[in-house]
Design goal:
Blueprint lengths: L2 E6 L5 H13 L3 E6 L2 H10 L4 E8 L3 E2 L1 H10 L5 E8 L3 E4 L10 E4 L1 H6 L1 H7 L4 E4 L3 H10 L4 E5 L1 H6 L3 E4 L8 E7 L17 E8 L8 H10 L5 E8 L7 E8 L5 H13 L2 E9 L6
Parallel strand pairs: 1-2, 1-3, 7-8, 7-9
Antiparallel strand pairs: 3-4, 3-11, 5-11, 6-9, 6-10, 12-14, 12-15, 13-14
Helix pairs in contact: 8-9
Length: 289
């Protein structure tokens, strides 16, 4: 029986491309459940419709994916991270049929992707109108279904699926990759496709505190890790949605839950923060080290 994995659709997204690549390398059959939003992908795990969700967490060019971060906060750890993968990304400029780049008047794109391709767009299509799409595949589908001098930023997979033409092979800045995380309803679920025990683990948390309004509060929180020689590989803030200037903080920690220093640092953080939520402790992707 194949694994049911929810990810952002429709067919041809970077998320589906990452899922197919992971499943192929692991030699595991998966049944993709393509959802209209990241929220729906996470909800599919919560409801039991999917065994896992594969969602983008951060990009090497544009940073954190807000929709995923907000879902992790809203879920309160109910869909823990059980693995991660790093997927190389290559955005193409895609048209319905062969077209001169200089003739393009509209570019359909997921806003996050348009930002990754910003320098190329400014240099090559400075007057083109950027039209928001809900995913890279939706952008390509819009071009396939429409007429006129339009293009999309998307994947080679989407171009093939929707019968379109790639007219520029790489329009991002290069060195582009997206870190995806696997979500499950059970922290102790079997490792998802392509995730192996590498010998290195990562622990992800989110925390907040009313003390954040006081000078030095965040520094004091972080000192709980530095003072125990526990490395943080990432920290990022998002609005807490209860007033201007109120934030939650995401952090990735080198080391697993159960490690004495990590546990001690988390206890120290809990003494300073109003809330610390465990998002998951899982094998680190080999590409991240």
């Amino acid at each position: 029986m194949s694994l049911r994995v929810a990810c952002l659709g429709p067919e041809g997204t970077v998320s589906q491309e990452a899922l197919q690549d992971a499943a192929s390398k692991a030699g595991i059959a998966v049944e993709p459940l393509l959802t209209p939003t990241i929220h729906h992908a996470v909800a599919a795990v919560t409801s039991g419709e999917a065994d896992y969700a594969l969602v983008p967490l951060e990009n090497s060019l544009e940073g954190g994916v807000a929709a995923t971060l907000d879902e992790l906060v809203a879920g309160g750890g109910m869909t823990p991270i059980v693995g991660e993968l790093v997927h190389p990304v290559r955005h193409r400029l895609i048209t319905k049929t062969a077209l001169e780049i200089s003739a393009i008047e509209r570019v359909y794109s997921l806003p996050f992707v348009a930002a990754q391709c910003g320098p190329w767009l400014r240099d090559n299509l400075p007057t083109a109108k950027i039209i928001p799409a809900s995913s890279t595949a939706d952008a390509v589908r819009s071009v396939a279904d429409g007429d006129g001098p339009a293009a999309a930023l998307g994947t080679d997979l989407a171009a093939r699926l929707y019968g379109c033409t790639v007219i520029a092979d790489q329009v991002d800045e290069g060195g582009n990759s997206t870190r995806f995380v696997w979500l499950s309803a059970d922290q102790d679920s079997p490792l998802p496709p392509g995730v192996t025990e590498t010998g290195k683990s990562r622990t992800s948390i989110v925390f907040w505190g009313s003390g954040a309004e006081e000078p030095g509060w965040l520094v004091d929180c972080l000192s709980e890790f530095a003072g125990r020689n526990v490395n943080l590989t990432r920290i990022e803030s998002r609005p807490r949605r209860d007033g201007l200037g109120s934030y939650v903080f995401f952090a990735d920690i080198d080391g697993p839950v159960g490690d004495e220093r990590v546990e001690s640092a988390l206890e120290g953080l809990a003494s300073r923060a109003d809330a610390v939520t465990m998002l998951g402790s899982y094998p680190a992707a080999p590409e991240r080290g």
